[in-house]
Amino acid sequence: MRTFYSFTVILGLSFFVFSFSKLESTNTTYTKTSNNTIVYHNNHDVNEISNDFFKRYSDLKKYKSDVMSLYKNRTLGTIWFDEDEISEFGTVLYEKAKKTNDLVIPYQKEIDQLFSSSSDKSTLSQTDADMLLSSLYVLYTKKNNADKKKLAYNEMLKDFLNYSTIEETATVDANAKVEYDQYYKLQDILKKYKRLENSSKWKPIVPAETPYKDLRPDAVSNTIAQVRTRLYLLGDLKNDSKSDVYDRELMDAVMKYKVRNGFKPNYILAEEHIKEMNVPLEDKVATLKLNMERCREISALIAASDEYVLVNVPSYELIYVKNGKVQLTSPVFVGAPLTKTTIFNGEIDRIVFSPYWTVPQSIVQNELRSKIASDPNYLAEKNMEMINGQVRQKPGPDNSLGLVKFMFPNPDDIYMHDTPSKTLFDFEKRTFSHGCINVKMAKELAVAMLKDYPEWTQEKIDKAMAGKVENSFKLTKKVPIYITYFTSLVNEKGEVGFFQDVYEKDGNSTNTETSITVN
């Protein structure tokens, strides 16, 4: 059942942030599926696309049959993309191919640009990019599987598109230095989890009551004793007394467990917590390895930065680091599954106090037009105005962007901002926006970032946030921002957290979407 919120929350809709692939102009009929793969409707269409591709990339024509066999059961659906981004498997293929001796790669420049982080970014369509990577896969496999010629390339692909390939890459590059130190923190945790995996101590928690009932402090149950042992093995509890009483010692351990894993900080042991504790160790090990590989993709600049903001989508958390120390940590909420927050690096160049919010035309057309027509005072009552044909909400505590926003230029027009919808931070799964990042402690972040600007006193900041007109301040020193996707991270205390795979990038998520969306 769809949940309806007050007008303020409904007006929290910003703009739809969709990243559509640029496709080559053809007469082919196709359907774009929910996961952004392109499905062509018949063999004639497939042949037309493949003929066009190999005509333009003629040096690959001799590999046409092998390449097209990879799409045999995909009808040209993408292989190497996860939504609009090249997947981890595509990155592993590229890295493996680069390290293969004597491998001649046609169209090397075009492939290199697909993985470039510079301004010299590729403008290839997703279809062309995917087929180039498939061609690279065939070349790489021919070179490295000379003894397996009888095995079809599409059969070998099934093995390649397995997370063991990422694990193999980690083994190959074990001695390569990774600039982001989170890699080595995860590596230490991985050793611990592998030891647990090889021991006989880890046993599934079997609830004593059916159906399961939430457990609270002072409860007595065999389930409590099992939870106690689990938290002892995980390091949240120093001693395992084997007691089946939910006592103070266990309360502290449960709170520690919940906080590091992004659960709501209370003492209730619900069924979802037991299920998370029962995730097989082999799955946890795979998650740790995958996130170690993600550390390799983080810009090396983060290690050299004396100041930066990092937002991790799965943990719904922002940290602000300065001079090597975490200055501020804040909960955030991010893009809904259909309007994902883009994972990228940028630079914050402006802080805008008392911002206006320009209402997207889709909301004006679908929600406001009839209300404005029926009530001449409607806009004034909602602290809104019409400027040059556009509706905008004036600054104020009820403005959908809150009292301050942080701008960092990017093609998706994503930014961070305050929000009046503070109650949404009480949810454990916080995918509510249309792509922008809503920050609970936005005011505190602005104060922390402006400490090096003596003219911005606390009094001046308070006044700017209470203004009647927008006040934009351009930072003389841009602050790097990293929007990341880590489903496991180690905090400053050396404690690991495992978080929801909210955008299903790990390949094993069963999360469902929420119907609530705000800006």
UniProtKB/TrEMBL annotation:
CDD domains: YkuD_like. It comes from the Bacteria. Pathway: Cell wall biogenesis; peptidoglycan biosynthesis. Residues 307-462 form the L,D-TPase catalytic domain. The keyword 4Fe-4S does not apply. Keywords: Cell shape, Cell wall biogenesis/degradation, Peptidoglycan synthesis, Transferase. InterPro entries: LD-transpeptidase_YkuD-like, LD_TPept_cat_dom, Transpep_catalytic_dom. The active site is at H417, C436. Belongs to the YkuD family. This is L,D-TPase catalytic domain-containing protein. It comes from Flavobacterium ginsengisoli.
